[in-house]
Design a protein that fits this description.
It is built from no helices and eleven strands. A hairpin with a 6-residue loop joins strand 5 and strand 6. It starts with a strand and ends with a strand.
Length: 126
């Protein structure tokens, strides 16, 4: 069974850091494009970062560029999102996702992803 399990969310003060993890079971990450999305209350799900299957390039949405770092460990079948300099507007539920059908990810199109984690809550507040 193909499954993604996230961990690492929590409450942090502005300027703080969190590291999200997403462990895959039933498949390896090196064959697919992978991404992190987030959804704030009352807003649509938006792409945060992704890694292309085609060339391994990493992309970030403008609002997190320079503060977030996405990485993966193929041997552990785990992807990570290191979040530094957190702001209140980063608050939301964060989801990891995998697409088995698309090679390019930088458009951050949610319907292109066919496997999703359960989500982990990130709250940035003083």
């Amino acid at each position: 069974q193909l499954q993604l399990v996230e961990s690492g969310g929590g409450l942090v003060q502005p300027g703080g850091s969190l590291r999200l993890s997403c462990a895959a079971s039933g498949f390896t990450l090196d064959r697919y494009s992978i991404a992190w999305f987030r959804q704030a209350p009352g807003k649509e799900r938006e792409g945060v970062s992704c890694i292309n299957r085609s060339d391994g390039s990493t992309y970030y949405t403008d609002s997190v560029q320079g503060r977030f770092t996405m990485s993966k460990d193929d041997a552990k079948a785990t992807m990570y999102l290191q979040m530094d300099g957190l702001k209140p507007e980063d608050t939301g539920v964060y989801y990891c996702a995998v697409t088995t059908g698309y090679s390019y990810c930088e458009a951050f199109v949610p319907y292109e992803y066919n496997y999703w984690g359960q989500g982990t809550q990130v709250a940035v507040s003083s």
